[in-house]
Design brief:
single chain, alpha/beta, globular, 6-stranded mixed sheet, 19 helices, 4-stranded antiparallel sheet
Amino acid sequence: MPQTADDMGAVAVRTWCSLALEALGREREAIDAINVYPVADGDTGTNLYLTVESATQAVEAVFAAHETGTTVPVAADAVRAMAHGALIGARGNSGTILAQLLRGMAGVLADGHDADHLRRALTRAAASARQAVAHPVEGTVLTVATAAAEAAGRAADDAGTAAVARAAYEGARTALEATPGQLAVLGRAGVVDAGGRGLVTVLGALVEAVSGRAPERTYVAVPAAVVPVPQDCAEGGPAFEVIYLLEATDNAVDRLRARLDRLGDSLVVVGGDGLWNVHVHVDDAGAAVEAGVEAGRPYRIRITHFGADRVHPHTEPVQRAVVVVVPGDGLRGLCKEAGATTVLARPGEPPASGELVDAIRRAHAREVVLLPNDAELRHTAAAAAEQARTEGVRVALIPTRAAVQGIAALAVHEPDRSFDEDVVAMTAAAGATRYAELAVAERQSWTMAGICQAGDILGLIDGDVAVIGEDVPETARNVLDRMLAAGGELVTLVLGEDVPDSLADELEEHVREGYLAVDTVVYRGGLQCAPLLIGVE
């Protein structure tokens, strides 16, 4: 069926996920700041971001796997992927509930994607989320979801998808403003519910996806700097948050719910069809995991000790470490030799926030400098840094946009000087490094340098196409000339796996003959997206 702007087809689902991820990236810190229920641990915005990030990656995988050309995946494939991605990537109480909301919507939208199906999808979502929570509380995201569904149901019978989405958004926003009067802990803190605010953000992205226009975003909440942490949330309550995926039957999960309900609180179990995401707050984390083992096969088990320094419970952490994302095994080895903890970004598979958080934990340090080395990872890295900070780690995120900038930053890293001085020096080194890469054009298209044809070699400088050539050596020389025209002292070349050493020799000679006092250093990058990376300092 053809998809229109006013339609919840596959393209709209993809756009919705992308816009929701961007919006949560912008608002993550503000949502974290007002997180006082059920535990004032300041991570609701981060957890929602990570959950939507997983959903987005699942939808993108469906599109990538689909045959390129004039067709797109059907809507059912996209919404099911969205729901599954959210389920397996759900974080925290808020993320787990959002995963169930998306699952409820997917169950209806898989059968149709017009306005009537969207109404019913929102109703199913609100109902299924309430059923997933052991003890629903008003004034939370559940209240906001219910209000959104009811408002969508009141939209005119002949309303289009965009009108239904906007009605749901406005209903949710109105309900969000009322949450401080429904839940005492929110009223004392003077904030709206953090999970509810996250859901309003997601629904705002839905409006923009189906209508092309973003709704006005205003929220009732005091500035983060003056939000008090209520004593009943700051102290007391279970000591651990336990989350795991579980393969189990429906009957086994029913028994598990009853057992976990006796062990702790904030119990949310979402999923179905043999795969579940289990979330609970308990004092005995081992018992919660054991209950999962008896019910089925738990995996991806995450246990968080509220309020504790979670760098590592048994050994003394080092003072400072660097975590760096690298595009190939060659640079991975180089960075490891320099003492950095690495995260490998395979071609077409950027790391998720969870991978970056795990790397920060593996670094086992009180202070961490994070080098994402990719402009597209800015929100992902920011979410990882924020999560690590909640675990007691001091994290500085240097917004490196390319691997060669990360190499430059790592080269001036000195763990013996103060953290602030080290970060300033590394940031300055990265900022003083211009970066370029060579790529092969996949199709004819317009670029900043003119029209390219499929198979042309593109030279991108600072992210923009600056040179179009017929072969790698010629294009590389032209790129170097353009970059060195503005001056430079050091050229860094990172060769891809299939690039011969002779290219490095040729480019070194080109620099030596044309630019006095400019040194060249060459590294083997291994399997990476680009055949050649270039840095000029």
